[in-house]
UniProtKB/TrEMBL annotation:
It comes from Methylotenera mobilis (strain JLW8 / ATCC BAA-1282 / DSM 17540). Residues 1-61 form the HTH tetR-type domain. This is Transcriptional regulator, TetR family. Gene3D superfamilies: Tetracycline Repressor, domain 2. InterPro entries: Homeodomain-like_sf (IPR009057), HTH_TetR (IPR001647), Tet_transcr_reg_TetR-rel_C_sf (IPR036271). Keywords: DNA-binding, Transcription, Transcription regulation. It holds the Pfam family TetR_N. It comes from the Bacteria. One of its GO terms (molecular function) is DNA binding. SUPFAM superfamilies: Homeodomain-like (SSF46689), Tetracyclin repressor-like, C-terminal domain (SSF48498). Residues 24-43 bind DNA.
């Protein structure tokens, strides 16, 4: 494993289990077994490390989702139904700790903070991703549907994070499917 990957892996484990603010650079250095200069060589600041963590979590989510969405359903409502089922599965896995960009925006609430700004970029990316799938599936207003699905999925993610096993993910899937059926 490359040094930057090792640092990011350790930071991810700490950020996911303790929170971003509660995981100091000294702890990340100690847990990863690298020198401070090495960490800063790969990540010039903790903000850079946090943004790399957020990017990595987003990329892994999209890779996971894309690998499971069936491309032969792309031009039909079926891809959106599959998307809803996959989001429910993802939110209800034991490994789910919430949406990292939500958590980061709460830990860094100032709109001027780079982590908060990057969280907003990632939130918009999710909405654009969903709108693209909606457009491919034939939604009348793909941008609106993408935003509506984002609202539903983000809400379910928050409720399930705060109250695991609450059924929010299943209810969100049902609501999203009803919305999709009325939008195609």
């Amino acid at each position: 494993m490359k040094t930057n990957e090792k640092i990011l892996t350790v930071a991810t484990m700490l950020f996911d289990s303790r929170g971003i603010q509660a995981s100091g650079v000294d702890t990340i250095i100690a847990e990863s077994g690298v020198a401070k200069a090495t960490l800063y060589k790969h990540f010039p600041s903790k903000n850079h490390l946090v943004m790399a963590y957020l990017r990595s979590k987003s990329d892994k989510f999209y890779e996971w989702l894309n690998s499971r969405l069936v491309s032969n359903k792309a031009n039909s409502i079926d891809i959106l139904i599959s998307l809803c089922e996959l989001v429910e599965t993802w939110i209800t896995t034991p490994e789910f700790h919430g949406l990292p960009f939500h958590i980061a925006s709460v830990e860094f609430p100032s709109p001027e903070h780079p982590i908060n700004q990057y969280s907003a970029v990632l939130a918009a990316e999710l909405q654009d991703y969903l709108a693209k799938i909606a457009k491919t599936a034939g939604a009348r207003d793909a941008v609106a549907l993408g935003q509506q699905l984002t609202i539903i999925f983000e809400g379910a993610a928050l409720v399930e994070r705060l109250n695991p096993g609450s059924g929010a993910a299943s209810r969100a899937k049902s609501a999203a499917i009803a919305l999709i059926n009325s939008s195609i």
